[in-house]
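Listing S7. Sequence submitted for prediction.
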Amino acid sequence: MPGHRHQNAPIARKEGGMTEGTPALGLTASEFAAIAGTEPSTVAYRDLFIRHDDMPRELRRWADARNVQLRTLSKVKCERGKRSQKVLFGLSDGYAVESVMIQRRDGFTACISSQVGCAFSCRFCASGQAGLKRNLGRHEIVEQVVRLGPKVNRIVFMGIGEPLNNYESVLAAIRIMRDRDGMRFPTTGITISTIGIPKALARLREEHLGINLTVSLHATTQDVRDRLIPGSRKHDLREVVARAISWAERHNRIVTFVYLLLPGLNDGRADAERLARMLVGKPARVNLMRWNPVESVDLGRSADHQLHHFRQRLVRAGVPVVVRDTQGADIDAACGQLWLRDLHGLKAAQRMRTQYGAAA
């Protein structure tokens, strides 16, 4: 019925549980149509995704009359680097997340967040230093992409948070973004990056989304991985690899294993040989990375010759490998550098608006 909320539509809430309204970007096409009723909804639904900050007046009036929120995030701060742009988004409850847009030769990649903070406390990453505050709703995930602009043609869940620890919202957001009646984003351009939660990987294996999968491995022994990713101690390294390979085999795709080289921890000859034995002959490739420095974290970067020897051992074993180029380090937007500058209160967001000016 017109004016009635679809029973599965998401609701945005203020602190204390007060309802603000239905976030439009969390609605599927059918949910949007249920609210729109007999009114022409296809064009309006499409406008939600392609009209970024200049919504048609008719759509704004329609939304106001039905308690529908067209936008829920506020751009608090925008930093531009050589080939990247980092945006701090304020959320309706006073928290904040960061997203990054990275320029490539053939377009732009949106690196988006899935949680406020992270529970896994990776030693090399800034995002988990404050712990996990909450999951993002599907509308908050979708809106990051929409607000980064129409030039985005790839999406990677490599921002703040562990996407498979917010499974339902992340997959709901992906389905909304790939909807032919809405954003029409090709799922072949979407990548989920995860530390590897075995049960979630098993669920993901049964989904048919056409996405890409990247697993942050970073170690070839359980002991070292437990030290680098304390929040993943209960996840057996061998099972993580096996589940990821099973996903790749089921969907006839290649899974990417990211391996961050850290001197004296995981960059030795024995590490390279173990990694090769794990992956040789499997539908897998390796992305080697250097560590991006994080304030207050005492880790080093493996030397160039160590990276070269590690890579060569994988190549000789027949494992596809590339050395991943780092983008965004000049504005603390590279992998592992995103963090929550102030987790609490829109007052903090307002202070930043005063200091830096509202981002357009």
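Caption to Listing S7: primary sequence and predicted structure tokens for the chain studied. Residues 72-356 form a domain with the TIM Barrel fold (CATH 3.20.20.70). The chain has two domains: 12-68, 72-356.
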